[in-house]
Design goal:
With about 110 residues, this protein is α+β, with helices and mostly antiparallel strands. The protein has a domain at about 1-70 and about 100-110: hypothetical protein PF0899 fold, CATH 3.30.2320. It is about 25% helix and about 35% strand. It has 2 helices and 6 strands. The strands form 2 sheets. The chain has a 3-stranded mixed beta sheet, covered by helices on one side. The radius of gyration is 17 Å and the shape is elongated. The two termini are about 30 Å apart. The model has no long low-confidence stretch (mean pLDDT about 95).
Length: about 110
């Protein structure tokens, strides 16, 4: 389950940010997650609680902001929203799409004590 590895990375980022601010605890973490990031939001939420055990993030709420996948259609020259790779263009039906957004995952915001 690669979501656990992702959550361990998130905890590492959170711990580094907390050290810089000399804060004792994290209340919440806001994570931006693209639809094409290859991770399931439900699995991330489940794994986060386990990964946070005995860390500064233990008990912290996790808020996931899901971002859409976006691709550029080479056939009709439009930027279109897609839910997953391999879909056709909703405007023209072409499969010549180049992903331009929606693969990202980042810690957007922390609420700390």
């Amino acid at each position: 389950m690669h979501e656990m590895a992702i959550c361990l990375g998130i905890i590492q980022i959170v711990e580094e940010m907390i050290r810089e601010r000399s804060s004792p605890r994290v209340r919440s973490v806001c994570l931006e997650m693209g639809a094409l990031s290859h991770a399931a939001p439900e699995a991330i939420a489940f794994c986060f609680a386990a990964a946070a055990t005995r860390t500064v993030a233990e008990g912290a709420a996790l808020y996931i902001v899901e971002l859409p996948g976006v691709a550029w259609c080479m056939s009709c020259s439009k930027s279109v929203e897609i839910a997953r790779r391999g879909e056709c263009c909703p405007c023209c039906g072409s499969y010549q799409l180049q992903v331009t957004a929606g693969e990202q995952m980042r810690v957007k915001e922390l609420e700390i004590d």
